[in-house]
Amino acid sequence: MYKIISLLSLLLLSACTTVQPWDKDLLAKPSMALVPSEIDNALDEHIYFSKEASMGGQGVGGGGCGCN
Amino acid sequence: MSNTKKIREKLTIASATLLQVTNVTAAEAPDDAWDIGTAVLFYSESDGRVSAIEPVISGTKEYKDGDIINLKAVFDSLTGATPTGAHASSVEQTFTNPSGKKPYTVAAGELPLDDTFLDTRVALSGSWNTAIFDEYSRLILGGNLSKEYDYSSLGVSANFLRDFNNRNTTFSAALGLSSDSIEPSGGVPTPFANMKVAGTGTNRDGTDESKTISDIMFGITQVINRSTLMQFNLGFSDTSGYMTDPYKIITVIDAAGLPTTSLTTDDLPYVYENRPDSRSRQTFFWKTVHHLTEDVINVSYRYHTDDWGIDSHTIDFHYRYELDNGSYLQPHLRYYSQSAADFFVTSLSESAAASATIADYASADYRLGEFVTNTIGLKYAMPVGKNSEFSVRAEVISQIQNDVGTPIGDQANHDLTPDLDSFIIQFGYDFYFNQ
């Protein structure tokens, strides 16, 4: 898996261009946030944590729960 | 507003977008205001199983020196019935509730559910996001606390972020530590001991247990071009301590696939489950956000693997369709599939149950089985006044279980791992609050 990730990362870095600060208008929009709604995301994470055996991926920590 | 100020604001927001840890949606933030997010989520499962109401309030404030504080409170109120781990059978089944005092019966052909399930949870969390070393590095310190009547959790986290490459690349390294404790109703069950007839004792070992969870995560967020952002995370998590579900049991069956009748006095044909006391998991996470002419696509994939034998794949897709006047519609699709834990069983034979020791592991918790979850949802949000937004979203979550193992005798007449549909509806209101 790590080889695939390394390869993907290299491909990614070689493919991207340097975007200047004055060209970041679209990236700066709230809708372009990686997590546009923290509340929706946290509620979803909590629901899926209680129903499935996987967790994490987006960050560390978060409230523990006796639900699983 | 002058052009210089506009550009400065945009740059600030762009940096915050790259940092991507707190919900910095400060595009129109008035000075000295708290960005408040509120929501109420209603959750219900088909067949009258669990239902929940979950109100949330979150406040984020950015100070003049660039520090960002976030405080959040979540309340969770659950009622309903939850599967015990025992499976449906052609005979009526009698169980004892967790306290060991009250019996309940489940009709032939019905999935055994514990309908005494009732819980309230309060979770509080906070984070402080501040510059460290220079203007290219940030440190986010967080803490969280949650409490239920039988469970409590205390966690801390630290996340370091550094921008490179004209702020087009952000590296992150995060550490998290959590300590959880459980005090099950009726005490901690003895692994593989039989559930007892109500009022005849409980087969318990002590009153409480605990576990610790350590997380480490490395991530890269990369601006691909003017309209595309990509994120990669690699996460490692170790849990040690008590991970058994004290309320879950396993049916012990005879050669005909019926709950065994070869029992000593006061025993019921169900034994308490037992899980390993360590778990090591790894996750790989990829996300891309892409701006089309007006709309935005947000797509992610997560691969999860652990030493319990659970591998899972999650694909998540949001499409934000911009309407007039700042409103938007956002369809959501999610696909999840997982393999069963190595020790997942639907039942135990009389000999397996009799010979099982603390060193053996078995659980019939459907969440450790093999299944697929499909989610379809839609959100609608509209601005209210200048700085507020109202939203509503509805989702349907379908969990489709696959049978694990070959049914024995009567087991073939029943759905041992029934599917489950859940529904959510959520109302949200975000606004700015001036002190």
Question: What can be said about this structure in brief?
Answer:
In chain A, 41% of the residues lie in helices and 0% in strands. Chain A has two helices and no strands. Chain B is mainly beta.
List keywords for this structure.
A: mainly alpha; 41% helix; flat; B: 435 residues; mainly beta; Porin; 16-stranded antiparallel β-barrel; four-stranded mixed β-sheet; 2 helices; disordered N terminus
Describe the main β-sheet of chain A briefly.
none
What letter string, H or E per element, gives the SSE order of chain A?
A: HH
Order of helices and strands of chain B: HEEEEEEEEEEEEEEEEEEEHEEE
Rg measurement of chain B, Å: 25 Å
Q: Which structural class do the helices and strands of chain B define?
A: mainly beta
Would you mind describing this structure in some detail?
By secondary structure, chain A is mainly alpha-helical. Chain A has two helices and no strands. Chain A has helices at 2-15, 38-51. Chain B has 435 residues and is mostly beta strands. Helix content of chain B is 5%, strand content 58%. Chain B contains two helices and 22 strands. Chain B has helices at 3-19, 350-355, and strands spanning 33-45, 51-62, 68-83, 93-96, 103-106, 113-132, 134-147, 151-164, 169-182, 194-196, 209-225, 228-241, 249-253, 267-272, 278-291, 296-306, 311-322, 328-338, 348-349, 370-384, 388-402, 420-434. A 16-stranded antiparallel β-barrel of chain B has the order 1-2-3-6-7-8-9-11-12-15-16-17-18-20-21-22. In chain B, strands 10-14-13-19 form a four-stranded mixed beta sheet. In chain B, a hairpin with a 3-residue loop joins strand 20 (370-384) and strand 21 (388-402). Chain B is elongated. At the A-B interface, helix 1 and helix 2 of A face helix 1, strand 1, strand 2, strand 3 and strand 6 of B.
